[in-house]
């Protein structure tokens, strides 16, 4: 499916969308801001069906009059991306939202099974080995990938649970929002979040 294909000559802004991998639709998504004291709807944002939910959060906050600007937003997991968390932090808005699930590919350990210390720029695997090689973004000099060596991985008893790579080693990618996601995962375990 082409991401931005025009699917209707009568409604050229309508797009293909998905609610899940199995549920497809044609049309739009509606995003609603509501204050929690009286359950009044304070803003509505409509996006084409192919726009990710998180892209509507900042406009919903920005369109609030100053006297109604939220200091906290509650939202579902689709709004919980790292970029959205950074956008809300810039607006001094606390976001209470589940972190998107972290599932491993091909039955392997998910990234959350690795201990990532962004300050020390270290990554420890479930077997206790610490990464030796790192790849940095050439433009920003920002850490992008932790690369475990073949020597570290080849005789590991957890190798088949860790990677299916033909190179026989695991890599862990981090993005510019990694710190926001780490903080959110920690917050997600607190009583404040669970209420």
From TrEMBL:
Molecular function terms from GO: DNA binding; transposase activity
Annotated Transposase IS4-like domain residues: 14-142
UniProt xrefs under InterPro entries: Transposase_11 (IPR002559)
GO-annotated biological processes: DNA transposition
PANTHER family: TRANSPOSASE, TRANSPOSASE DDE DOMAIN-CONTAINING PROTEIN
Protein name from the UniProt record: Transposase
């Amino acid at each position: 499916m082409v991401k931005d294909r025009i699917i209707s000559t009568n409604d050229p802004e309508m797009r293909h969308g998905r609610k899940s991998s199995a549920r497809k639709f044609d049309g739009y998504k509606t995003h609603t801001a509501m204050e929690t004291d009286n359950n009044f709807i304070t803003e509505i944002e409509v996006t084409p069906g192919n726009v990710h939910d998180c892209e509507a959060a900042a406009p919903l906050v920005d369109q609030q009059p100053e006297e109604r600007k939220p200091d906290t937003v509650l939202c579902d997991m689709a709004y919980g991306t790292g970029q959205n968390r950074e956008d809300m932090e810039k607006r001094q808005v606390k976001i209470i939202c589940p972190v998107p699930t972290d599932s491993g590919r091909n039955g392997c350990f998910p990234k959350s099974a690795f201990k990532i210390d962004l300050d020390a720029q270290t990554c420890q695997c479930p077997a206790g080995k610490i990464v030796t090689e790192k790849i940095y973004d050439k433009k920003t000099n920002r850490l992008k990938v932790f690369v475990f060596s073949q020597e570290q991985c080849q005789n590991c008893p957890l190798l088949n649970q860790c990677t299916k790579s033909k190179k026989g080693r695991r890599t862990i990618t981090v993005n510019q929002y990694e710190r926001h996601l780490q903080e959110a995962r920690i917050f997600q375990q607190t009583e404040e979040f669970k209420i």
